[in-house]
Fold this protein.
Amino acid sequence: MSYFQRVKKIAASIFMLLVALLLILMAGEGYAEEGFLTVVAIIILYQLFAGMSYLWYYLSMARHMVGGKKILTKSVLLLDLGLFTSSMFQMSSFVVVLYLLGFYAFSGVIDILRSLEAKRNGISWKLKFGNGCIGILISIALVVSGLFNNQMNILVYGYSLSLLYAALTRLISAFRKTKVVYIQ
Amino acid sequence: MNPDFHYYATYCAAVLAGYSHEQGLTIAYCDQLVDLCSKTFLSGIRGPLSAATTQLQLELMDTKTDVLGLQDITRIWASFHFLPKDLLADPGFRCFKKYRNKFRLICGPNGELLKKTVELAKNKSLQAVGLSMHILADTWAHQHFAGTPSMVINNTNYYFFELFPEGDGYREKRLTFRHSATTPDDLENGIYTNSLDTNNENSIMNLGHGRAGHLPDYSFIRYKYLPAWGQYEVIIKDNPSDYWNAFCQMIYAMKYLRGETDLFECGQYDRDTVAPYEETIRNILQKRQPDASEDWKAFGESLSGQTIPPFDLSLHQEEYRSAQQDAKTETFLGKFILAALAQKSMITREIYQTGSKLAGYSVDYNRKGFIGNKDYRQLVTYQEEGRKK
C-alpha cells in the first residue's frame, strides 16, 4: 500500500464512521428514513462516478488492451447498479433498507471470495475472511429481526453498527503492513 | 537480468573486448550497481537522490502514483531498465495520445536511444561504460515491456507456455503464477511469482515485467505469451538467443567505447571474438538454473586468469562519504552518479521532446540556464569544466 493509498483508506474510514454516527443520531431523533435515503444518495453518486471513470478509461485506453472488455463490463455493471440504486428512492423505506442490507451482504460474499483467493496465493487472508462472514451474519440477523419486529429503528441501529464495524476494520487495515510483490 | 549476467557475464564481455582485469571489474561492478543504486542507498552515502537508478520494494510501496510520483518512476525505469525502442512508434490504429505515449515507451533492442546511450558513455569513465552496458543488456531481457506503470501495456493474462525444443519444433508446458513474495520460483513445476492483477492503470503492480514475473530474467527459458498491447498476437520469447545477442553486442559496444572502432551502429554484434567460446557460453545460457553466477565466474576467471571477487555494495561507500564536496565527482561512486545523472537527463529530454510528460519536464541548460533540479548542478559543472579543458 502506498502512502497515498493509506491516506485515502483512512479518509474513507473516517467518512464511514461519520455516516454511521449521523444515522444513529437521526434514528434517535426519529429521522431514520431520511438517514437511509442520504446513504442511498451517496452510494448512487459513488457507483455512477466509478462507472463513468471506468467507461472513460476503456474508451481512451483499455479498448486496445488484450482482455480490455473486462473494464467495459465493470463500467457497465457499476453504471447499471447506480441507476438501479437510484430507483430505490421511489420504493418504501423498508425495501430501501433491505436493498442496503443486501448490498452489505453481497460485499461480504465478495470479501470471502477475495480472502480465499488471497489464501491460495499465500498472502494474509484471515481479516478479510472474518469481515465477510460478519457482514453476511449481521445482514441476515437484521433482516430477520426487522421482519419479526417490524421496527425500522432496529434496522437503522443494526446497519449503523455494521457500518461502524466496517469503518473500524478498514481503519485497522490502513495501518497494517502489507507485502508488495515487485519484480526487478 | 540478474547479477549473474550484470556482474559476471559483463566482466567476461569486458575482458573479451580488451579491457584489463581491473577495468573489467569496475565495469561489471557499475553494471550491477544500477540494480542497487536506490534513493535509500544514496541517502546512506549522502549522494544526490536524483541519481537513483532503481527503486526498492519498500520505496515503491511508499511512492505516490500521482503525476509527480509516476514521472519519478518512469524516469528511473525507462532510463536504466526499460530503454524505449522507438519514441516515435505508432501503434498502427487510431488511439488517444495518452495511450500512444505509453506505447512508445515499450522497451526493445537496437533502438535509436541505445545508440545515444552508448555514445553518451564514449570518452567517459569506466563507470559510465558499466552503466551503459546494463541498459544495453536490459533492452534484450526486458523487451516488450515499458518502464512506466501501465496496465494497458504491461499486463499479461493466463496465456503463458514454456517452450522446450523438441525435434524441429517445441513442446509446450503451461506456466502458472502465484503472488507470494517470499516463495522462490518453482522451475521444475513451472510455478512462478508475479505481481498482482489489478484494474488500476497506474498501479506499481503494472510496472515493467512484474506481471510476467522473473521470466525475462532467466537466461535459459523460452516461452510464449500475450502482451496487453499486442492485439492478441502471441510473442515468443527466446531468452538463450536474446542473451547471446546481448553478450555479443556488449563486446561490440565496449570495443567502440575503448576506441577500437569509430562508430557504434545498432544491429551489430561481435561474433568473431566470441566464436572460440560459443559452446561454453551457450551452455551457461541454456543451463536450467535460477542463478548462473558460478558458471559465469568460472568462465571469467578462465579468460583473465584472475579471481573475480563477489559483488560488495559497501566497497566504495566510505570513499564517497569522506570525500570533500568538490572532490566527490572524482571518487568511484561520484563518477557513477555523474553517469547516472547524464543518462537520466538525456532520456528525460528525449521523451519530453516527443510531447510526452510521462518522464517529467526537461529544461535545456544551454538555452534557459540552470532552472532545474539542483541535483543536476554537478552534471552541469562537470560538462562545463570538460568544455573548458
User: Anything to note?
Assistant: Residues 332-353 of chain B form the longest helix (22 residues).
